[in-house]
Amino acid sequence: ESAKLTVDGQVGKPGLHPVVPNMTLIQAIATAEGTTENARLNEVVVFRTVNGQKYAALYNLGAIRRGNYADPSVFANDTIVVGDSPARRLFRDFIQIIPLLTTPIVVAFQNR
Question: What does pTM read for this prediction?
């Protein structure tokens, strides 16, 4: 079985998509037929679990496309959410300063 990641939210074709080696966030979104017309490009969250610890990183696709920072690598089992409200709530304290950010925000969840 091939490796997959999930792309959800404001994309053309949400769901499971195959992962290729050296895949980036923008490439992964492209496999989901890109973002929808009104997608919030400054609210793209990548969820990842590493050694049982859950992380979420908030990216701004517009900033990546402008070259403000590198297009990040994505990996099998990642979940990418474009402009979806649950992800927005997670980062609600940061969203207002996002236009000023030139680097992504990464948050580690407390294990309950």
Answer: 0.82
